[in-house]
Amino acid sequence: MKPVRIVVLTGAGVSAESGLGTFRDRDGLWSRYAIEDVATPDAYARDPALVHDFYNMRRREAAQARSNAAHHALARLQQSTQHEVTLVTQNVDALHEAAGATPLHMHGQLDQALCAACAHRWPAPMEMSPETPCPSCGGATARPDVVWFGEMPYALDAIDAALTSPDLFAAIGTSGQVYPAAGFVDVAAASGAETIELNLEPTSTRFDDHRLGRATEVVPAWVGSLVQ
């Protein structure tokens, strides 16, 4: 059987059952923190200590989390020889990798640091501050290697290439409110792909199919229907 080309996009809902909070739900992260205070380049320029404290907290939480059944199911799908799977994630945790998958992190990674001066990247210490030096240029210019609002997401060329000819596009645990990721379903559909959303509730009528429920239940069941 010819491998089916599948593009999977995951959002915060995939990691929610691992104890990592979502963003836009009623009790989500953005109900407790103002985006403009902790997740923009202007916020970092204005108060880098506050931004570092926010991401130190998130880094600690992510380090304590463990991959759940949805992460493991998607790793199984990506490792299957029956399909060609591109896994794209909006998540900045490393739970896909811990389960054995190889995702494209379009919003960066909490466990990586980035020098705002020379663009050097390195494994982030658990605690960072405005005084954290870059190991390459020595400047006190270290920041989390995450994509803030107003910045360009990573890996867009690879994602665009994958979306040109998929047979199936799946969005899992994502709010469908943040672009460009929210528009991936339209690009995939225009390329002739079937589209499916797996989420607690539907976010859009643009998908051909919906599987509703907890990620740890609906994702393994869906993967089981694809991988024999």
From TrEMBL:
Binding site for substrate: Y55, R58
Record domain Deacetylase sirtuin-type: where: 1-228
Principal localisation: cytoplasm
InterPro entries, alphabetized: DHS-like_NAD/FAD-binding_dom (IPR029035), NAD-dep_sirtuin_deacylases (IPR050134), Sirtuin (IPR003000), Sirtuin_cat_small_dom_sf (IPR026591), Sirtuin_class_III (IPR027546), Ssirtuin_cat_dom (IPR026590)
Highest taxon above the source species: Bacteria
Cellular localisation: Cytoplasm
Cofactor dependency: Zn(2+)
Pfam families in UniProt: SIR2 (PF02146)
GO MF term (any one): protein-succinyllysine desuccinylase activity
Residues that, per the record, bind NAD(+): 11-30, 90-93, 173-175, 215
Catalytic activity line of the entry: N(6)-succinyl-L-lysyl-[protein] + NAD(+) + H2O = 2''-O-succinyl-ADP-D-ribose + nicotinamide + L-lysyl-[protein]; N(6)-acetyl-L-lysyl-[protein] + NAD(+) + H2O = 2''-O-acetyl-ADP-D-ribose + nicotinamide + L-lysyl-[protein]
Function field: NAD-dependent lysine deacetylase and desuccinylase that specifically removes acetyl and succinyl groups on target proteins. Modulates the activities of several proteins which are inactive in their acylated form.
Record's protein name: NAD-dependent protein deacylase
Annotated gene: cobB
